[in-house]
Design a protein that fits this description.
Helix content is about 40%, strand content about 10%. The chain is built from 14 helices and 13 strands. Helix 2 runs antiparallel to helix 11 and helix 4 packs across helix 11. A hairpin with a 3-residue loop joins strand 12 and strand 13. The longest helix has 22 residues. The strands form three sheets. Strands 2-8-7-6-5-3-4 form a seven-stranded mixed sheet, with helices on both faces. By secondary structure, the chain is α/β, with parallel strands linked by helices. Bound molecules: pyridoxal-5'-phosphate. The site of pyridoxal-5'-phosphate has 11 residues, from helix 5 and helix 6.
Length: about 425
């Protein structure tokens, strides 16, 4: 699309936006004078869908009216209400997904099963500057399996004086180290740079080397279309409080490819992974559900899942194609305006991305606080990046325009 520099052009884009009405389905944060903020932190914590209140109230009501009888009638299978929409969102078969626990907990559960180091094939590959929790999880799993992170962790590092990884370098590192690689574990979109990796090609390269390929999709789900089943990914997990707008600490999603469902390898067990038909016979012998649900440990947090049901109803209705299209337009439009008005700002996010842009600006932290004081909600990540992520379901093009104007004021001050 050919963009123009005026605010009236942003207004035209908003008028043409087929998703514009969805903003009304969310509570939009305001300042102390009741003015709407510009909320560009959907990559951190998505906004609250207005219907969340009804979804939670319903469960509270059933609990108050029925007590444990609600369990049998409704809550035992509550997580199954999320199966279809979750599978659609990540391109999986229904039996390949389950919502449970929190993200880092799931990463541990998945690595316990899928990181099975052999004498020569014992390494894990991760992208440098992955999210700290990913480092901690991977390093602790390496130690738990009797190896040392110094020798067993391979970090993908950008070339000298470059901030992002080149796709060809990732593939060539997999080819070079493949014989030693037990697991390739990358973020689908790097949380810091906003770079989206080519998950299909990475999976292909990893599987050719007979490595297990798993992704942390915290910054991909609800942001980019995914085809985890067709790509042949082994496992993935993601949180639902970012783009999916399910609220602080909401439960995480998990994908496990169907080829692993007859699993007889290591796995941490709990009663919720037991065959549903006989679970309440309370046998001490574990009989697993032969789907991703076999990795469940505990019964589902109903009050945490209810908001996710509310937001997934919106995602399901809109579909990832439309969400992706607008996300791409929002970030391209922002990139255009920054390039036009603020040539000193270094956009480190490459074209391969979702809707987040990471801006490296000298004096960045002061500028971040100026933005905050002037009604912009985005975030600062050490050492030098302001992350800005307009959300396709609730942000307007005019907000992108106004943001760039305020950023310009901050820099020219
Ligand atoms: C890439 C990535 N990994 C891990 C985490 C940790 O998530 P949790 O606290 O839900 O385990 C986050 C949270 O923002 C994240 O962005």
């Amino acid at each position: 699309m050919i963009y123009e520099k005026s605010r009236s052009f942003a207004q035209i884009l908003d008028k043409q936006d087929s998703l514009a009405t969805y903003r009304d389905e969310f509570h939009y944060p305001k300042d102390n004078y009741n003015n709407e903020l510009i909320y560009f932190a959907g990559n951190s914590l998505g906004l609250q869908p207005k219907r969340v209140h009804d979804y939670i109230t319903k469960e509270l009501f059933i609990w108050s009216e029925k007590g444990v009888l609600g369990q049998e009638e409704r809550w035992i299978s509550f997580h199954e209400r999320l199966t279809k929409s979750t599978a659609k969102l990540v391109g999986a078969l229904n039996q390949e997904v389950v919502v449970m626990n929190a993200l880092t907990v799931n990463i541990h559960l998945l690595l316990i099963s899928f990181y099975q180091p052999k004498k020569k094939k014992y390494k894990i590959m991760i992208e440098k500057d992955a999210f700290p929790s990913d480092y901690y999880a991977v390093k602790s799993q390496i130690k738990l399996h009797g190896f040392e992170p110094d020798s067993a962790l391979i970090e993908l590092i950008p070339r000298k004086n470059e901030k992002i990884l080149r796709h060809e370098d990732i593939i060539s590192a997999i080819e070079t180290h493949g014989d030693e690689l037990a697991v390739i574990y990358l973020g689908g979109v790097n949380y810091y740079t906003g770079q989206a990796f080519d998950l299909e090609q990475i999976t292909k390269a990893g599987k050719e080397k007979e490595s297990i390929v798993g992704f942390n999709l915290a910054h991909s789900v609800g942001n980019l279309p995914l085809s985890l089943h067709d790509w042949g990914v082994d496992f993935s997990s993601w949180c639902t409080y970012k783009y999916l707008c399910a609220g602080p600490g909401s439960p995480s999603g998990v994908f496990i490819h169907e080829r692993h469902h007859e699993w007889d390898g290591p796995r941490l067990l709990g009663w919720w992974g037991h065959n549903k038909d006989t679970r309440f016979e309370m046998s001490s012998k574990f009989d697993p559900i032969l789907t991703a649900e076999g990795w469940q440990i505990s019964n589902a947090p109903i009050m945490g899942m209810a908001p996710l049901l509310a937001s997934m109803a919106i995602y399901n209705k809109v579909g990832m194609d439309a969400i992706r299209k607008k996300g791409k337009n929002l970030s391209s439009y922002m990139e255009y305006l920054i390039t036009q008005f603020l040539p000193s700002v270094n956009i480190i996010t490459p074209k391969s991305r979702g809707c987040q842009l990471s801006l490296s600006i000298s004096g960045g932290k002061d500028i971040y606080y100026y933005l905050l004081r002037n009604g912009i909600v985005c975030d600062w990540r050490n050492p030098d990046v302001i992350r800005v992520a307009p959300h396709p379901l609730f942000n307007k093009y005019c907000e992108v325009f106004d943001f760039v104007k305020i950023l310009r004021n901050a820099i020219e001050r």
